[in-house]
Amino acid sequence: MLALSEAPAVGSETSTPWTNAQATPLVEIRSVSKQYGDFTAIGDLSLKIYPGEFFALLGPSGCGKSTLLRMLAGFETPTAGEILLNGEDMVPMPPEKRPVNMMFQSYALFPHLTLEQNIAFGLKRMKLPKGEIDSRVEEMLQLVQMTTQAKRKPHQISGGQRQRIALARSLARRPKMLLLDEPMGALDKKLRRETQLELMDIQHRLGTTFVIVTHDQEEAMTVASRIAIMDHGKLMQVAPPIDTYETPASRYVAEFVGDTNIFTGSVTAAGSSALDFTLEVSGQSLNALPQPGIAAPDARYLNVRPEKMAVSKDRVDDGSNYLRGRIDEVAYLGNLSTYYVDVGLDQRVLVQMTNSQRFGSERFAEDDNVWVSWYPQDGQLLDR
Amino acid sequence: MNLPISRRNLLIGIPYTWLMLFFLIPFVIVMSISLSDPVIAIPPYSPVLSTNDGLAGVWNYLTQLDFENFAIVLEDDVYLSSYLNSVQMALTTTLLCLLLGYPIAYAIASSPMHWKTRFIMAINLTFWCSFLIRIYAWIVLLGNQGVVNNILLSLGVIDSPIQMLNTDFAVYLGLVYAYLPLMIFPVYATLEKLDNSVYEASRDLGCSHIESFFRVTLPLSRPGMLAGAFLVFVPVTGEYIVPSLLGNASTPVIGRVLWNEFFSNGDWPLAASISVLLMLVLVLPIVLYQFFSNRNEEK
Hints:
The complex is a heterodimer of chains A (384) and B (299). Helices cover 22% and strands 32% of the residues of chain A. By secondary structure, chain A is an alpha+beta fold. Chain A has two domains: 22-251, P-loop containing nucleotide triphosphate hydrolases (Rossmann fold, 3-Layer(aba) Sandwich); 262-382, CATH 2.40.50.100. In chain A, the strands form four sheets. A six-stranded mixed β-sheet of chain A has the order 6-7-8-3-9-10, with helices on both faces. In chain A, strands 13-12-11-14-20 form a five-stranded antiparallel β-sheet. A five-stranded antiparallel β-sheet of chain A has the order 15-19-16-17-18, with no helix packed on it. In chain A, a hairpin with a 3-residue loop joins β16 (321-332) and β17. Chain B has one domain (67-298): Orthogonal Bundle (MetI-like fold). Chain B is globular, with a radius of gyration of 25 Å. Chain B has 14 helices and two strands; from the N terminus they run αββααααααααααααα. The longest helix of chain B is centred in the first third of the chain and has 33 residues, at 77-109. Chain B is an all-alpha fold.
């Protein structure tokens, strides 16, 4: 096993280089575009990725995330713009010359070579001495816990094991940056969760910068230090997981990351610490807090996450927002109960409540008349 | 599949019946003729199996068979050198088809989708015309008064016609022309199925485009090359038409010798033993190949 390197403490300056204007990025993508005929895969995109980051590109299929990753690997050339690695433009460099390696979605192991030879493949191209190659192959096999299978061929091992060998092969050259294209797409849910934790552990130990492409927001939230949410070739938000969830930049991000309730309306009265948000459909007035960066007249949506809401029989005058409604549907998930409540708007409100006690928690049934409530500070105003 | 036994037997039975009717029974007949003696009669060999005398007749028939014809074939240099000529011709043709067919298959496999089908169609087109006619066409092209010589003469490149017809050059030209598609198709099919990400992985791991080809694409297309090699090698070994029409009588090939023994000399038993031995020459490498590839699979 490799020695554990000192992990920077969470929240310190070193672990959040993106907040520090002086920090030097490992990769800087400068107004990159990619056109395929009339179709714009990437449109004028700029992004900085810092050393040691576990960076996730998240978005629906066709959003351009894979194209961006393949540009970093050298398999696609931008139509315009620059990609700098340590300040040097990578665009003219062919894939084999880049200090970057990729782990493919299909794993792309060489079927005619043994697992050992697969891992050694990239090292042999570096013209390393044989002893060095052997020791690095051994080190990589240990890293992914596959030492006993070294002499087998790819078709003789399981999918999960192939995934490990693909990871070992792409890390063997000690790249400055590892690109992972949907690395867990082919694994079942349980194995995927284990592998995510292992991947984080490996990234932590090696300190290599990882860039992962995924369409699974839960996976991105689990592994990444920062997530770039993409849609139609544009960045919708680049932020740590907690910010993409709690402070989404737009309605699109709010709805893409997790479940949420979006109320449409406008601000009708604005004070310095509180304002009135009037719903478009019913004219009901709700309490909200001013959102930094959004001028009150621009606010169009109120975003409230389902677990920030509560369902209750009675209304208590505690400053919360209350909506009167009737339970449409109940989904009991074990740890949570999900209520779909008809509050007389053109949408059902989704409320999630934790079943924190076996029998004590108050539960509701379909057709119960209830109040849906949330604290004003748990709602977030959005302007787009 | 979980079929009832009787239906499964029926399904397996179809290919077995086919092999039995059109391969095993004809082979037994040819084999039995190869063990008989030539006579001037109809049929031109003896003994002839007759069922009139029952078991005794069969026994009498069997005792009259011998390996005399095989001894003749193996002892006479003419036959041995014809076999060698044929095998050499087949090996050279296979190699030429591989060298020419691989790049063509590679080019087709890497061209855009709508072009692929057009290229494959174009190669298929050659089969729409009879094999014999296509070979005759080469006589018209290559003869001393032929199209090629006339063009070269009129251009002033040469003063007198070049002897092309009835040379080894013409034979190889005809063979490669006729058998090239049989190499292109299996190689193309293998290349077409290759996962492009495997090629990309090799680039990612430090190979140039050319190095990727030799280290990944070429080794992975071996099954297609082997299939193509067998498809070309086996029929060319027994090839009779191309060497007869385009070739030179001084280098006999086994197909021609066989034809002569059968049609000119009327010696059916000798012709039959030549073809049985020819089959051995062809089957042996295939059996060896399968044996070794099975052993590799188990490893």
